[in-house]
Amino acid sequence: MKIAMLTRWNATCGVSVHAELVGRQWIKNHDLTVFGPTLESVSGDYHHRTTMEDEEFVIRGYEQPKNIGEDGWVDDRLWKEDYDVLLVESVELMPIPKLLEIFPKIRAKKVAIVHEGKLPEYEGFYKLNFDYIVCFDDRYEKMLRKRYPEEKIHIIPFPCNPVVRGDKIKARAKLGMPEDKIILFSFGRQPRIEYNDYLWLVEELSKRHSVEYLAVRSNGGHLEETDLLEIRLERLTTERSYDYLHASDIHMVPKGDTESIVVSSTVFQCRGSGCPIVIPDVKYVERLNKEVVKYKGRDDLKEKVSKLIEDENFGKETLEAAESYANRNSAEKIAQRLIKVFEDL
Q1: Which of 134, 290, 302, 309 could cross-link with 321 by S-S, CB 3.0 to 4.6 Å?
Q2: How far is CA 27 from the centre of its chain?
Q3: Strand 211-217 and strand 132-135: pairing?
Q4: Main-chain dihedrals φ then ψ at residue 125, nearest 5 degrees
Q5: Under 8 Å CB-to-CB from 221, ≥6 apart: which residues?
Q6: pTM for the whole thing?
Q7: 132-135 and 109-113 beta bridge pairing
Q8: Which residue, among 306, 293, 276, 314, has the nearest Cα to 205 in the 3D structure?
Q9: Which among 296, 275, 274, 297 has a CA at the least distance from the CA of 285?
Q10: Residue 14 confidence (pLDDT)
Q11: How confident is the model at residue 189 (pLDDT cuts 50, 70, 90)?
Q12: What's the pLDDT tens digit per position in 9-48?
């Protein structure tokens, strides 16, 4: 099957995570071409920081507009080549007026994967004639039914990295981390306010345990190192993030709340690492249960993290649930489900 993807690629954002998880499965058995945004058009985008060199199947083939509804350039190979399927991820990030112009020229079946957490107000968004619209859960489906026929909307969950267990001692030696401490770990570029609960927590835990908090960031931001907090500046690949997760005892995910419908790509990336995930009880994990440890308020956070440290069965329960979910919704299985959709169109 010959597939074209119009999406972000090699970026630190949920759109890119989804595209890369399924795309790297498809290149094993299918002819895949990825049209990513020009690096100039995303140079000021907080969420688009490339993590590696582009692969040979990637074309920097469109301009990402600064605002929804603005026009932009699209590489003519998108409509001059014969593809079986065109997959577009996060439509509002695309030059929609140009897509409206070229869509009739594209003979491929057209599928949208919706990352938008609210219905866009720009009416041109809804004029793009997709054959099939994929969303991640029932919250998105309910929202989309307000503007699309029910028969076009289908739920296919966000994919997960495969389950990969590691050796904690070897991972710590590789990364130069202390062998004898309880390591709390976070990565990303979230604002300082989203770390405040965890900075408070490590101070509280240090009264009873030998503990350290390690934050890996692609920029320094407004965090400052302390006796209990180590900051490393590094732009993590998936493989490298798993090294850190294998070396750590607990993965602390900084997240604020939002009014939008959202999922946490970080959680889906890391669920199979064998490191329990702690996260605030916010919309990002609204549809998850035992797969993560959710907390409400600092007292609840301290109680649950202490239980993870002191009660082996509690940690085992959340890891089993996380790994079961990751296996059911692995990137390989989700990629196959999408291929089945393409074949049925």
Answers
A1: 290
A2: 20
A3: unpaired
A4: -55, -40
A5: 189, 191, 192
A6: 0.91
A7: parallel
A8: 306
A9: 296
A10: 59
A11: confident
A12: 886 665 788 999 999 999 999 999 999 999 898 876 655 5
Q: Does this chain's domain 2-159+330-344 share its CATH topology with 168-328? A: yes
> What's the rounded Cα separation, in Å, for the pair 40 and 283?
32
pLDDT at 324 over 90: yes
- Tokens 């690096």 correspond to 39
- The CATH superfamily of 2-159+330-344 is Glycogen Phosphorylase B; (3.40.50.2000)
Q: Provide the 10 A C-beta neighbour count for residue 127.
A: 12
Residue 288 clears pLDDT 60, i.e. is over it: yes
The residue with tokens 């709390």 is: 184
Q: Which CATH class is domain 168-328?
A: alpha beta
- pLDDT in the model for residue 237: 85
End-to-end alpha-carbon separation of the chain, Å? 13
């999922």: which residue's tokens?
263
For the chain, the structural domain boundaries read 2-159+330-344, 168-328
Give pLDDT, residue 50.
Answer: 59
Return the structure tokens found at 103.
């869509």
Three-class DSSP category at 172: helix
